[in-house]
UniProtKB/TrEMBL annotation:
Residues annotated as domain RDD: 54-201
Lineage: Bacteria, Pseudomonadati, Planctomycetota, Phycisphaerae, Phycisphaerales
InterPro entries, sorted: RDD
Name the UniProt record assigns to this protein: RDD family protein
Annotated localization: Membrane
Keywords, comma-separated and alphabetical: Membrane, Transmembrane, Transmembrane helix
Species the sequence originates in: Poriferisphaera corsica
Cellular component terms (Gene Ontology): membrane
TM region positions: 65-90, 102-122, 163-186
Amino acid sequence: MDCLNEVEGQAVEGMKETAQTVCCPLCGREGKVMDKGKKLYNVLVCKKCYYGFANRRQGAFLIDFFLWGIMLMVGGVLYATLGSFLMGWVKSFDVVPAEVVEGVWIAVSVVSMVGAHFAFGFKDGFHGYSLGKRIAGVQVIDEETGRPIGFWQSFKRHLRLQFYTLLCCFLIWCSWLGVIGLYLVVGGFLCRGYRVGDKWARTKVIWKEYENKHVFVDNTLCGKCGYDLRVTSRDECPECGEKISERKRKVIDEVYGGQFV
């Protein structure tokens, strides 16, 4: 059974409801460790779990990025070798001007680079895992159904962040250090749970070791403002208007039996 966790700042008919923290709802540690706790998906957890979860997500990304970089380097060598051979072969017929052949080659190369950049966004489509996430023990799920995401949802989840990194690449003249830097800056917000793209794709990352804990499953708090959704039967948060997902509504109704506090 999960520990009692702090829920504060939620108005119930003009009054504030506050419960005293007993222990971390993830690792179960008690006492003073919770005095400096932080909120993950709007639920108070100890600092060890808070940063541990973020570190796993950042580590998963770095593994994926490193492996993807190796694949791109190998693919780039093969592409350059094959491309040089084909250009020489086409030029040997002396039918198409050399400038046109080279122009087509440059255009195809640019399109291929952009395509490879966005293809990275499909990495979490393997039942909610990439290789890095599998190693790190985290998984991406659909927030409404609780099921692991597929390739389309993975692409959608990464699209906005990839657009920002692509823009960053052009601004700093295609420096991959800039891309890594941007991802790491975004990684600083991973501690809270959601990151850029999660809300749009309706996804969330869970820690597999604690996948059945309250933080990841039956979180009754609004993901935007932290309002306790057990006090309402509406399909949207009465505090901020955020839509309540079908999964969360179902969990609240099933776990709490439709009894609103």
